Amino acid sequence: MNEEKPKLIVDGKRLDGRSFDELRPIKIEAGILKRADGSCYIEMGKNKIVAAVYGPREVHPKHLQDPSKAVIRYRYNMAPFSVEERKRPGPDRRSIEISKVSKEALEPVIMKELFPRSGIDIFVEVLQADAGTRTACLNAASVALIDAGVAMRGIVTAVAVAKVDGQLVLDPMKEEDNYGEADVPFAFLIRSGKIESITLLQMDGRMTAEELKKALELAKKGAMEIYAVQRDAIMRKYRSEEEVE
Ligand code: CDP
């Protein structure tokens, strides 16, 4: 990138006025699509994402079936209009990589052994992107899986931490992601309200080992806040279903 790097922290605040450990505003709604078995809409800052889950259902082609457990498929896709410079439709190296690591981030939470020979398909569509889409997509996909009634061991909650102007910040937005020194997306498996394990950890840029430890603590704090919003979205959906019955 040839543009000059702007100052990302001014008077102890970030460019959008947030403090270092503050998430962007987050909004989650479960069950927004009629034709999917489970679905979710999420906004994390300027990111706008829809997740849809189908299954457990029969796998086609049949040779992809696993007689001992369900096969999970995850497709991350960015709409052409989701980014500043129109994105060419269809998969590219980045979206294939994100789909792979995201699938692996969710697999430990899904009770695959309960659904032999079947498939669970997760589609995430990024409608508007502003950094942290892989983590926002995972948050939406988790809620959509629960909405679909897929048996789960817990929930996956994801958030990134960046290093900008030498400072660790939670949930970086586009400018921080573009011009920062490092970006570390995390996903956690949360079970009975507690973080049990890390299911995704990537990093680009440079951090000291000590900073990485601090980044993990900051991400955990953010994840617990996101988890509360995910839970609330699921409760609201169940409550509205009860009202209809
Ligand atoms: O979105 P995430 O941070 O998980 O992944 P990234 O590869 O670090 O991308 C960071 C941001 O760059 C995305 O969220 C988009 O806002 C932007 N981007 C873009 O403008 N055009 C692309 N083709 C891909 C990403």
Overall SS class? alpha+beta
Mean pLDDT level: 96
Total beta strands: 12
Ranges where pLDDT stays below 50 over 5 or more residues in a row are none
Distance between the termini: 55 Å
* CATH topology group: Ribosomal Protein S5, domain 2
Number of helices: 4
Question: Tell me, what is the CATH class?
Answer: Alpha Beta
Q: Estimate percent helicity.
A: 25-40%
Tell me the strand percentage band: 25-35%
User: What is the H/E order?
Assistant: EEEEEEHEHEEHEEEH
Bound molecules: cytidine-5'-diphosphate
**Major sheet description:** 5 strands, mixed
Read across the widest sheet, the strand sequence of neighbours is 3-4-5-7-6
Indicate the radius of gyration in whole angstroms: 18 Å
Question: Mind explaining what this structure looks like?
Answer:
This protein has one domain: GHMP Kinase, N-terminal domain (Ribosomal Protein S5, domain 2, 2-Layer Sandwich). It is globular. A hairpin with a 2-residue loop joins strand 10 and strand 11. It is α+β, with helices and mostly antiparallel strands and 245 residues long. Bound molecules: cytidine-5'-diphosphate. Cytidine-5'-diphosphate binds next to helix 2, helix 3 and strand 10.
What layout of secondary structure does this protein have?
Elements: E1 9-10, E2 13-14, E3 26-30, E4 38-44, E5 47-58, E6 71-78, H1 93-106, E7 118-128, H2 133-147, E8 155-164, E9 167-170, H3 174-179, E10 182-191, E11 194-201, E12 204-205, H4 209-244
Parallel strand pairs: 6-7
Antiparallel strand pairs: 1-2, 3-4, 4-5, 5-7, 8-9, 8-10, 10-11, 10-12
Helix pairs in contact: 2-4
The structure holds cytidine-5'-diphosphate (CDP).
